[in-house]
Specification:
single chain; 134 residues
Length: 134
């Protein structure tokens, strides 16, 4: 089975997919917080963005078509770990440079992006050899 696993294309698709995922998160959050509490709005927007991200990463970024509950679990684990890394990185930068919110946001996004790309490519959507029974 031939797959289009060109690393440059994967990185480009990952960046574009990440942009779409973030836009999904931000837009749903923005729409909902006018009607719901902030935490509920953020929980819904994060969940929706996670679903969009899973579908984009699986089928478009990494061209991975095998169905697997374990894969979905690995994706969720990486996503929640990335959330923690993002928050910790953001807070660490703000502790070092108080008031530099945009610098903290950009650095946290880059660190989180590198972490998720590596985990998605080599753990979540890793191409595993298939055993052919004759």
């Amino acid at each position: 089975m031939k797959t289009d696993r060109n690393p440059r294309k994967e990185v480009a698709r990952f960046v574009l997919a990440g942009t779409i995922v973030n836009a999904t998160d931000f837009s749903i959050y923005y729409l909902l917080f006018h009607f719901l509490p902030f935490s509920i709005s953020k929980g819904i927007s994060f969940t929706c963005a996670g679903i969009v991200g899973y579908l984009l990463m699986k089928y478009w970024t990494f061209k991975y078509s095998r169905a697997s509950y374990a894969e979905a679990g690995r994706y969720a684990l990486v996503n929640f770990s990335a959330l923690g890394i993002n928050v910790l990185t953001n807070q660490s930068i703000l502790n070092l440079y108080p008031g530099n919110v945009w610098v903290a946001l950009i650095i946290a996004t880059i660190v989180t992006g590198i972490f998720t790309f590596v985990c998605f490519k080599w753990w979540v959507f890793k191409v595993r050899s298939q055993v052919i029974k004759e």
